[in-house]
Give the backbone structure.
Amino acid sequence: MYPYRRLRFTAALWLAGLALAMLATGGLAQTVGDGRRIYQEELRVQLDKQQVGAKAVGVDVGGWLTFGLFDYEDTYLHASGRRKGKVRTLRQYELRLWTSLTFAGVHEVYARGLFSYEDWNRTDNPANRGDDFDSEVERLWYRFDYNRLVRNRTGRDPDLGFAVQVGREYQEIGSGLVLALPLDAVRLTVTAGNWEVTGLVGKTVTHTPNIDDSAVVSDHMDRNFYGVEVRYTGLDHHQPYIYYLWQRDHTREWGNDTARKYTYDSNYLGIGSKGSLLLPNLRYTWELAFESGRSPTRDGTARRERIHAWAMDLQLEYFFDAPMRPRVQFEYLWGSGDKDRSTPGTSTIGGNQRGEDNAFNAFGFRDTGLAFAPDIANLHIFQLGLSANPLERIELFRKMEVGTKVYFYVKDHASGAISDTGGTLASSWVGWEWDVFCNWRITSDLSFTARGGFFQAGDAFDNRECRHFVYTGLTYSF
């Protein structure tokens, strides 16, 4: 036990020195590509699952080494006026080092640093520069659990309890439809009987990519969030909730276009539930969100228009009690659109004309297809998925899951814009995508993932060539 623990500590120190050497030679990298966010979200879920076990130990250190290979095609506006595709290749190396300290389960401190190196093929970096070095404090928080304190002393939970967490952590509200971001935040959760009330006050990390892809604000944002969520846990098979989230935009323009106004202030009222439905293995999640607030107009004046937008998400997932553990899923996503937005649907430039802004824009996350990966504004998205563990009887492949997903995209308003700047034609049919994936836990310390997406553009695009996004990744934990 102790030699193993010292070995892990020595390895962590050695890798920390290597990471600091990398840091000394580079600057800040920029995350580009919505398909890469899907990869990062899947990796985050994987790492956070491992983090839970690590935090329960008391004092511990460790880390993860990850390698990702990306090959994808995006589109750009050619001098001829037509949109053309460009294939880009990236090799991404990431080192994460973490430490956790706990005292009787009541006080917890967690810190995690991220050091990364992005090795692009020549001229492939979308930011028009070469390779990128990056470093950041990815997680840093303290948590106090009053419920655990009382439980340790009395053997039972208090009638009125609470837990508070302060620092940088990945934050969600509801099911993550309107907010799913790392924030520097204070999160207070109060429990009373079957009721759970959560309050959130947070601020974005500066270099988080903006939802507004206008050039002077696209690679950073400074936004404050204030939210409250009420959840009822007294039902056996259902967990309903309601929330309200305020977002205030303080982002400053980096560039010469400082006369135009980019401020986008929004509010979200959401209701939803998750649980099991009719059959024990049939799980569901649904959420309906209404967005209000003030949106900048495309002419760049100080005047802002009212936001009046909606979004809905319905997910169904069924697990079969059968060999190979097959699983089927269905998801329907809808984000309202604005008929007079031009291109793209999330930008101030070419954005809302005078009049009410009906385009739904938020800060959440959904898997909307790897190669296309659109925001949900002005789209109906239908997803069908199937996965299984086909080789579970072979020990080496027991934890290997393979699957496929199919997506269909239809505009809410045929004349309105979507987040992809190529889909500007007045047609409802946007296209469809087919994804395949493999997640394989090879050993307790080594995991492999691969995913490929192929998007066939529909009548809304002038360039209807098939585009792809493929990645493979390895993660080693120590």
